[in-house]
């Protein structure tokens, strides 16, 4: 017999998991982008230091959100252990934890030689002493000699982390909104878009809008513009997939596309407004960096809203 | 003086080396031990020649009867879990462990309401096992899906993955508990077909026993791979269905007339 179906949203994974996914994707994409920039586009010590350290800080904060949610904090040792991949190669969270840990390790090692040469870190009391330790000096010199290897190991783990944030949601067959191959793609594009926005803010605010960095800023603007366009196309296809998919997918679509936060907050201010601001910047240019900085802030806000609404719109269908 | 410095340096290097080695061994060792422990469990007694399953005749399931739920609560010590001080009714109802629930299905055409017990469906392809980061959520060779509470980190991904809302999370320390069914704060748990009975050679679950005793005989438990078992014969003579069959999980629990 055909029975009536009820639809439920979940209340286990709320804003804190959205923040974990957001910071995980943003931190990993930021770190990856700065290392690839430094290795292949323009050697840039300040950008590497900003990218690596802020990326590590974001990933640490995101992981802390997850850690605090556990009631038995000691039990986390079971997932930090790399041997867990032998027991559970199917679990994306097991892979993701390893990606995050090793990305932070290799990211720090890539940045270490730059830290040792930096005047800023030489002025910080405790850090100055640690950087002067013979062991740290030796590790720093070794990493400097093999910087490409460290950079690529960090990059591989960074890309793994970014994709994992989408795969984590995709692995739940009971929720139609999450269980489709578009989710890892959407989250990956969004993570790199927010990373471009974050680095544009770093280049405009922290590294003082240097003229020599102008081509790099333009490159990030153009890349972000393309990424936002791709994100809009993915969302467009999501809209039609959800409407024509299973009942729970249709309910998710109703929840998303009837919510002003999603429509105006995310799609309007998080994607369309920055898209047109950056489009004008790329085609005709702006007299001031302010519009691009505004676009960057909006993209960063939109990146969080995407994950926030995705968590809340995940719908379970139950025949009771 | 220089010689003395060298000796100190060697000791420090030796110390750092040994510390790194010890930290590495401490990190990796639990994983190796877990692998060995699991391997030992799976080869002792439990065999894939058996697949435990359940067939529930919804025509016989009485609307107002909770015998299966009560028996499950008693058998697995769920009734010993006390309500935390200050917890509201809503919080307690949402958080208390529940391995079986009675749910109602309404026929869209006739509006007839059918009552049935809902528990872990012991899927052949369990999503809870796929997402568990530590392997705490696992399926035994005989098809029973259960949780190893020693390595459950309480992340609740399995609860998110389960389409049947069959898993519970223990939010507080539990003082009174049964030896056969230990439970601790921060762990997930669910129906395990009364595994303590199965491993002791029993072939009935507490819920089936209670249902039989109440005179309904709606629950039939047995080996789905044994062609002579009562449950296999019943499968051949009745039209049974999986709940949410479209997910293709090949559940071990089936329902007649839904």
Question: Could you give a short description of this structure?
Answer:
With 320 residues, chain A is mainly α. Chain A is built from 14 helices and two strands.
What attributes characterize this protein structure?
heterodimer, A: mainly alpha, two-stranded antiparallel ribbon, 2% strand, B: 258 residues, alpha+beta, Alpha-Beta Plaits, four-stranded mixed sheet
Structure report:
The complex is a heterodimer of chains A (320) and B (258). Chain A has 320 residues and is an all-alpha fold. Chain A has helices at 15-41, 45-69, 77-80, 84-87, 92-117, 119-123, 125-132, 134-145, 147-170, 182-206, 214-244, 247-257, 260-283, 290-312, and strands at residues 6-9, 315-318. In chain A, helix 1 (15-41) packs across helix 5, helix 1 (15-41) packs antiparallel against helix 9 and helix 10 (182-206) runs antiparallel to helix 11. The radius of gyration of chain A is 21 Å and the shape is globular. Chain A starts with 5 loop residues before the first strand and ends with a strand. In chain B, the strands form 4 sheets. Chain B has a 4-stranded mixed sheet with strand order 8-1-10-9. Chain B has a two-stranded antiparallel ribbon with strand order 2-3. Chain B contains 8 helices and 10 strands. Chain B is α+β, with helices and mostly antiparallel strands and 258 residues long. Chain B is globular. Chain B folds into 2 domains: 1-44; 49-256, Alpha-Beta Plaits (2-Layer Sandwich), CATH 3.30.70.20. In chain B, helix 2 (67-75) crosses helix 7. The termini of chain B are far apart. Chain B has helices at residues 2-43, 67-75, 89-95, 127-131, 157-161, 195-199, 206-213, 230-237, and strands at residues 52-57, 101-106, 113-118, 137-139, 145-147, 168-169, 188-189, 219-223, 240-241, 253-256. Chains A and B meet through helix 3, helix 4, helix 5 and strand 2 of A and helix 1, strand 2, helix 4 and helix 5 of B.
């Amino acid at each position: 017999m055909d029975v009536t179906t009820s639809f439920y949203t979940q209340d286990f994974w709320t804003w804190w998991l959205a923040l974990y996914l957001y910071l995980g994707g943003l931190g990993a994409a930021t770190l990856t982008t700065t290392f690839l920039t430094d290795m292949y586009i323009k050697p840039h010590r300040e950008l590497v230091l900003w990218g690596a350290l802020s990326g590590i800080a974001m990933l640490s904060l995101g992981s802390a959100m997850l850690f605090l949610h556990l009631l038995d904090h000691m039990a986390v040792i079971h997932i930090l252990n790399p041997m867990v991949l032998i027991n559970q190669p199917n679990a994306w969270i097991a892979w993701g934890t390893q990606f995050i840990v090793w990305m932070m390790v290799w990211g720090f090692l890539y940045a270490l030689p730059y830290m040792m040469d930096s005047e800023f870190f030489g002025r910080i009391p405790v850090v100055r002493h640690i950087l002067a330790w013979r062991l740290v000096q030796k590790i720093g010199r070794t990493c400097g000699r093999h910087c490409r290897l460290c950079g690529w190991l960090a990059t591989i783990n960074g890309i793994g982390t970014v994709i994992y944030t989408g795969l984590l949601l995709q692995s739940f067959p009971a929720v139609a909104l999450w269980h489709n191959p578009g989710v890892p793609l959407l989250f990956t594009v969004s993570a790199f878009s927010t990373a471009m926005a974050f680095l544009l803010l770093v280049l405009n605010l922290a590294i003082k809008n240097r003229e020599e960095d102008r081509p790099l800023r333009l490159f990030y603007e153009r890349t972000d513009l393309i990424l936002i366009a791709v994100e809009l196309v993915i969302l467009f296809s999501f809209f039609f997939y959800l409407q024509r998919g299973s009942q729970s997918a249709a309910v998710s679509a109703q929840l998303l596309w009837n919510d002003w936060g999603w429509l105006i907050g995310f799609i309007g201010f998080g994607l369309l407004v920055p898209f047109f601001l950056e489009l004008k910047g790329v085609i005709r240019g702006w007299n001031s960096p302010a519009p691009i900085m505004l676009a960057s802030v909006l993209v960063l806000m939109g990146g969080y809203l995407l994950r926030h609404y995705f968590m809340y719109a995940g719908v379970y269908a139950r025949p009771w | 003086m220089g010689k003395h410095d060298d000796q100190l340096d060697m000791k420090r290097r030796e110390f750092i080396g040994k510390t790194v080695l010890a930290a590495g061994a401490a990190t990796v060792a639990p994983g190796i031990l877990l692998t060995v422990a699991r391997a030992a469990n799976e080869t002792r007694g439990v065999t894939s020649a058996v697949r435990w399953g359940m067939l529930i005749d919804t025509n016989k399931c009485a609307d107002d009867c909770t015998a299966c739920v009560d028996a499950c609560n008693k058998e697995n010590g769920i009734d010993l879990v006390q309500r935390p001080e200050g917890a509201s009714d809503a919080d307690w109802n949402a958080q208390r462990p529940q391995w079986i629930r009675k749910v109602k299905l309404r026929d869209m055409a006739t509006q007839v309401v059918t009552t049935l017990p809902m528990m872990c469906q012991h899927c052949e392809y369990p999503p809870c096992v796929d997402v568990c980061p530590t392997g705490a959520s696992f399926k035994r060779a005989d098809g029973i899906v259960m949780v190893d509470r020693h390595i459950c980190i309480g992340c609740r991904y399995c609860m998110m993955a389960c389409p049947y809302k069959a898993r519970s999370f223990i939010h507080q320390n539990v003082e009174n508990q049964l030896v056969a069914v230990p439970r601790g704060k921060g762990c997930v748990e669910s129906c395990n077909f009364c595994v303590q009975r199965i491993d002791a050679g029993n072939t009935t679950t507490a819920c089936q026993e209670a249902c039989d005793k109440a005179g309904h005989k709606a629950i039939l438990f047995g080996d789905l791979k044994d062609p002579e078992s009562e449950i296999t014969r019943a499968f051949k003579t009745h039209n049974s269905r999986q709940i949410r069959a479209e997910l293709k999980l090949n559940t071990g629990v089936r329902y007649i007339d839904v």
